[in-house]
Amino acid sequence: MFVNQFLFLAAILFCIGVYGVIARKNAVLMLMAIELILNSVNINLLTFALRNGSTDGHVFALYIIAVAAAEVGVGLGLVLLVYRNKKTISLDDLSEMRG
Amino acid sequence: MIAQNIGFWIIAIVMIVAALRVVTTNNVVHAALWLVVVLAGAAAQYILLAAEFVAVTQVLVYIGAVMVLFLFGTMLTRARIGTESDLNNSYKKLGIPVGLVMFVAMGLALISSFGDEKLPQTATVVSTQEISDQIFGPYLLPFWALSVVLLAAVVGAIVLARKD
Q: CB under 8 Å to A57, separation ≥6 — which residues?
């Protein structure tokens, strides 16, 4: 197996995630696109861990999984609060801080 | 090696199709279920990369916990389950050139850096013991910081989401 086949898979997933963050207006769907980006980073870390024969990449991948779980918890709490106050989670409608 | 390569390409194609469906489908619940396919495929790729502990953690944390959170978030913030037309920005076509430019840039960098370098054939599976030796040895301080982050996230989520 080539190093590049895993790295290219991660790059494709990353770009799809970036497209999702740009294209989506619904806050929950944007968080899903962020999950795609985080997973592509994990694939990269584990590929390099195998290439270099070290376990550091595994540790970082586990930390990223934990941080992603925390991020989703707080993010969905925020989305819930926004929905309760404004009855919508469309990100275009959250423009109070625009100057 | 042949079998692993065939497995890699099948899983990779399924993952890419599912990821495209996540960012293009007009149904939030379908997007969540396609995301499950991507995350399970990623777990399979971790096993191909000799990272069994990370793969099991991926299944437990992502497919078990994060997806339930997403489905609850969908349920609590929308009146109806079904197709919606108001999920995308009006300028969503702008995302296609941005994604393509990033992919071309990353692809050129990867080809010039790694070319046709191969992964080591004799790699052994990284055992859980080695990972725990790393976490509770040189990476203990980030582990503590991560514990505080998770505690803060739990408290923060409760404070944000409760009704006063």
A: A45, A46, A47, A48, A49, A50
